[in-house]
Specification:
The chain has 212 residues and is mostly beta strands. The protein is built from no helices and 16 strands. It folds into 2 domains: 101 residues, Cupredoxins -  blue copper proteins (Immunoglobulin-like, Sandwich); 73 residues, Immunoglobulin-like, CATH 2.60.40.1930. It comes from Psychroserpens burtonensis.
Length: 212
């Protein structure tokens, strides 16, 4: 079953259909921003940077009134609530959009763009498909990183395959590692979002990584 990569998975709702597409609900309120936002060092209320596959749907759910959703000029898809930049909607309103183009689309609440914003990174269908068991964990530090990062595999330290993909689904690294902690030089990589996939005999795990 496909796995959606989210930083605050407990705050997002997943609905699975027979078509294998997914619906992700973002609670839309003040401080619906990425936890990495430097203006909110204690962490954001809701994480709004997500990764989905082509054909998945995102639903914004208004927890308070006076908001809208608009894509910005750099987004690969144009979407948003009806009306102009400052036409807003009340508590309980929902807006849904199904993404069909690979790439990243940024979104904001136009009246509160510094307090409510995020991005949807769309990857090709099947990129996030994972069949796994005996799930454990691994860590990436630092994340985001500029020149290098360390992958700590924890208990997964024997014959692990590390694959890294960009948001277009292109594999940029494939390496077998045996050490618990392995350092990766990324100084020559393009800035942006990457997906790290690690595979062992019984486990497949994926996490999101940002190259600054």
């Amino acid at each position: 079953m496909k796995k959606i990569l989210l930083l605050s998975i407990c705050l997002l709702t997943f609905t699975f259909g027979f078509s294998q597409t997914e619906t992700i609900t973002i609670p839309w309120d003040f401080f619906s921003v990425p936890p990495s936002d430097p203006n909110f060092p204690s962490g954001a209320m809701f994480d709004t940077n997500i990764v989905i596959e082509v054909g998945d749907t995102v639903v914004w759910d208004w927890l308070s009134g006076g908001h809208n959703v608009k894509s910005d000029g750099e987004s690969v898809e144009s979407f948003g609530t009806p009306g102009g930049e400052f036409d807003t909607f009340p508590t309980g309103y929902t807006y849904a959009y199904t993404f069909t183009i690979v790439g990243t689309s940024n979104f904001i609440c136009a009246p509160h763009e510094t307090l409510m914003y995020g991005s949807v990174s769309v990857v090709p269908e099947g990129t996030l498909s994972v069949s796994s068991s005996n799930i454990t964990s691994f860590s990436i530090s630092p994340n985001p990183a500029r020149n290098s990062f360390t992958l700590d595999l924890g208990s997964l330290n024997n014959n692990v395959v590390v694959e890294i993909y960009d948001v277009l689904g292109k594999k940029v690294l494939n390496r077998k590692v045996n050490a618990i902690a392995t350092n990766f030089d990324i100084s020559h990589w393009n800035s942006g979002l990457y997906i790290i996939k690690i595979s062992s005999e019984k486990t497949v795990l994926m996490k999101r990584f940002v190259k600054q």
